[in-house]
Amino acid sequence: QLQLAESGGGLVKPGGSLRLSCALSRVTFENYAVGWFRQAPGKEREPVLCWSTVQGTTYYRDSVKGRFTASRDNAKNTIYLEMSNLKPEDTATYYCAARTYHYCAGYPNYDYWGRGAQVTVSS
């Protein structure tokens, strides 16, 4: 069964950068759409972006366009969320998730979820 593991979270100052990793085990990620989601305290989980071989990157938040990108390492079976010019409102727990389709979808239409990585943007 597919397993997902996020890593790379942490504390960063406003304007800084972080890269989150989502490693997929036991499957080849090219057969899945992989999404990144985030949940801030007291708020609902929201989609950030998604990547699939068919669609490339699909953005779900206008606020991250130009600052967040998705990339991948085929050899490591890993999807990355590259975040730059981070803002305090980006503070949240970030989750990666996969669905057994080649097309992205919004929350919660994903079959497998990671445990999350905390990102805190604060001076």
Helical stretch tally: 0
The biggest sheet, with number of strands, parallel, antiparallel or mixed sense and barrel status, is:
7 strands, mixed
Query: Uncertain spans, ≥5 residues at pLDDT below 50?
Result: none
- Number of extended strands: 11
How much helix is in the residues? Answer: under 10%
Range of strand content:
over 45%
Strand-pairing-aware structural class: mainly beta
Would you tell me the overall average pLDDT?
93
Could you give the order of the helices and strands? Answer: EEEEEEEEEEE
What is the end-to-end distance? 40 Å
Inertia-based shape: globular
Radius of gyration based on Cα positions: 13 Å
Q: Would you mind describing this structure in some detail?
A:
This protein is an all-beta fold and 123 residues long. The protein is 0% helix and 50% strand. The protein contains no helices and eleven strands. The protein has strands spanning 3-7, 10-12, 18-25, 33-39, 46-52, 56-59, 68-73, 78-83, 92-99, 112-113, 117-121. The strands form two sheets. Strands 2, 4, 5, 6, 9, 10 and 11 form a seven-stranded mixed beta sheet that branches. A four-stranded antiparallel beta sheet has the order 1-3-8-7, with no helix packed on it. Strand 5 and strand 6 form a beta hairpin. The protein is globular.
